[in-house]
Amino acid sequence: MTALAPDPRGDTARAGLRTLRIETPSWAYGNSGTRFKVFAQAGVPRTVREKIDDAAVVHSLTGSAPSIALHIPWDRVDDYADLARYAEAAGVRLGTVNANVFQDDDYKLGSVTNPDPAVRRKALAHLLECVDVMDETGSRDLKLWFSDGTNYPGQDDIRDRQDRLAEALAAVYERLSGDQRLLLEYKLFEPAFYTMDVPDWGTSFAHCLELGERAKVCVDTGHHAPGTNIEFIVAFLLRAGKLGAFDFNSRFYADDDLMVGAADPFQLFRIMCEVDRGGGLDPATGVAFMLDQCHNVEQKIPGQIRSVCNVQEATAKALLVDREALRTAQRDGDVIAANDVLMDAYNTDVRPLVAELRVEQGLDPDPVGAYRRSGYQDRIARERVGGEQAGWGA
Ligand code: LRH
Ligand code: MN
């Protein structure tokens, strides 16, 4: 038996992949689309339990997606503890709780930033309800994304809205207990087109600093201006101990919510390089890796499986970076050599390494192929007839 050549960086990559956990979003299993059309698909879940069943399939085939994020009220049930038990029996855990203060007529001029105190109280009540849900599900993270903003200069006072936002965030922060955290997600534009009240990482970072240790920034990779260097933001937030989570997806233009790594795999690699460099792959650092996507035209479950695999492959490439050689080249100011080190890792085909690791974990080396061969898609298309499919505009 020929002794295997020592492969220290391969070992590092395999070790990193063994602890990598990617949370899938309940809403990715439901129908989604754009303002032009939401396309229905056969077999789409009608209930949160069917969403959990689908998330469990993604985990069973990838081994790296052990939790599902909930969105309230889309996933509202009477008994969340019972739902948590159902999820556990299915092989997954209930993860991040997402609040929704963006789909009620009262929130036209804002939710927690609305000029009307009664509307602000209503919005805050929903955010606090979401913490109640976390108490029942055992979830650690509350993710807050606000559609709040204005469309025209003068529509409202930018500073007053920040005061109102800070007041609501402080009230929610006060309510957190145990290991609970608040993740504040930012977005440059949409649905507001002049100001968003949390438009960028700096605004989220500043509010999180003001709130305290439990408040962290959520980086949604689709929420930046074109050309934004997201890996710089990641490096900065990790250095400050304020990177709480990612909402992974990819885009060609705006908040396209496409499969992560599909539009720009090199960007995802660069991001994972900074995550690794900043200690973000160490579970103790507490960075949550979540998908936030909408499979408008592609099948949803294979889309989620492919997305998990894309993050695994980008992470494996990032972990193959010869850090020592990189440091030497950087120290020596050898720009070409430094860039070569990174490109060498990026241009490495890691699919055999990731496939071998799956086999080692008792999984099929090709999770998407395994899903296709499983017959699950035909079964749910047959079984899930009648009732209202879950999803946007449902
Ligand atoms: C907003 C967002 C947010 C979710 C929603 C489904 O664009 O990224 O994270 O609540 O999508
Ligand atoms: Mn998001």
UniProtKB/TrEMBL annotation:
One Gene Ontology term of the molecular function aspect: metal ion binding
Annotated keywords: Carbohydrate metabolism, Isomerase, Manganese, Metal-binding
Iron-sulfur recorded as keyword: no
Gene3D superfamilies referenced in this protein's UniProt entry, alphabetically: Divalent-metal-dependent TIM barrel enzymes
Classification via InterPro entries: L-rhamnose_isomerase, Rhamnose_iso-rel, Xyl_isomerase-like_sf, Xylose_isomerase
An example Gene Ontology biological process: L-lyxose metabolic process
Keyword presence, Cell cycle: no
Protein name, per record: Xylose isomerase
Organism the protein comes from: Umezawaea endophytica
